[in-house]
């Protein structure tokens, strides 16, 4: 992943930033490492978690582990 244009003029999305909380998503793949080294390859993502991401940001950067854990906790 790389920086991609946001829908807001003059703004870019940083692939290393969680689109939900704005903190680092610790994405190894976006850092240029193999996808197999990323934390997300070792967890499951429940249905509905990606619906929290605003449509214009989906598929452009990964959510962070904390946001995933918060979602799971809220939906237990």
What can you see in these coordinates?
With 76 residues, the protein is largely without helices or strands. Helix content is 13%, strand content 5%. The chain is built from one helix and two strands, in the order ββα. The chain has one helix spanning 65-74, and strands at 4-5, 12-13. A two-stranded antiparallel ribbon has the order 1-2. A hairpin with a 6-residue loop joins strand 1 and strand 2 (12-13). The protein is globular and about 35 Å long. It starts with a strand and ends with a helix.
Question: What labels would you give this structure?
Answer:
little secondary structure, 13% helix
Question: Care to give the gist of this entry?
Answer:
The chain has one helix at 65-74; strands spanning 4-5, 12-13. With 76 residues, it is mostly loops. A two-stranded antiparallel ribbon has the order 1-2.
* Low-confidence region ranges: 1-10
Principal-axes geometry comes out as globular
* Main beta sheet strand tally, sense and closure: 2 strands, antiparallel
Number of helices: 1
Strand order of the largest sheet: 1-2
Helix % is: 10-25%
Percentage beta strand: 5-15%
Distance between the termini: 31 Å
Element-level helix/strand string: EEH
Class by alpha and beta content:
little secondary structure
User: What is the average per-residue confidence, as pLDDT, rounded to a whole number?
Assistant: 85
Radius of gyration: 12 Å
DSSP strand count: 2
């Amino acid at each position: 992943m790389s920086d991609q244009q946001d829908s807001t003029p003059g703004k870019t999305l940083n692939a290393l930033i969680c689109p939900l909380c704005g903190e680092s998503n610790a994405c190894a793949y976006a850092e240029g490492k193999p996808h197999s080294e990323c934390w997300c390859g070792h967890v499951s993502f429940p249905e509905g978690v990606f619906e929290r991401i605003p449509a214009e940001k989906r598929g452009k950067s990964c959510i962070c582990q904390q946001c995933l854990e918060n979602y799971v906790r809220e939906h237990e």
